[in-house]
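Internal tracking record. Fields below are filled automatically when a chain is submitted to the structure queue. Please do not edit lines marked as system-generated. If the sequence contains nonstandard residues, flag them in the REMARKS field before resubmitting.
Queue: standard
Priority: normal
Entity type: single polypeptide chain
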Amino acid sequence: MIILRNMAAVEYPDYRLLLIGEYARDLSATHRYDIHRGRENARASIDGSLPLGVDTADHQLYCIEPADADADLGQRPVAGYLWVGRKGDTAFIYDFYILPAWRRRGLGRSALAQLDRLLRGQGVTELGLRVAAGNPGAQVLYDACGFRVTGVNMAKPL
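SYSTEM-GENERATED OUTPUT FOLLOWS
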């Protein structure tokens, strides 16, 4: 079980740095350019999408905490993050990250189930995401949680 709570503004800078690093590696691997260019593109994309951090309209940032941790709410360790955007009755997961020390414990599946309940309660009828081709573990998780392939992104270097 997990607790999905709103990210506090004070937590955003650390999350942003983690996200930039992870996204830069994904961009570099996917588009076959160096990590420096990947980092520049990741930073520009994230800062453009979340100009006000946790206060950006139509976006919600969550911290994932293990519910069974021996700590009071808000004092539990952060096991991962979720970034969800909303547009009308649809939502999109921009980022879903479980920290390596917390993986393979069912927290990802639990977080997605809790997010489903939360979004349904808000009138959302469809939830989408993008998963990197080189992340088969995530693809298995998303498939098990009811996501289906709706298209395939493709690119080639010129």
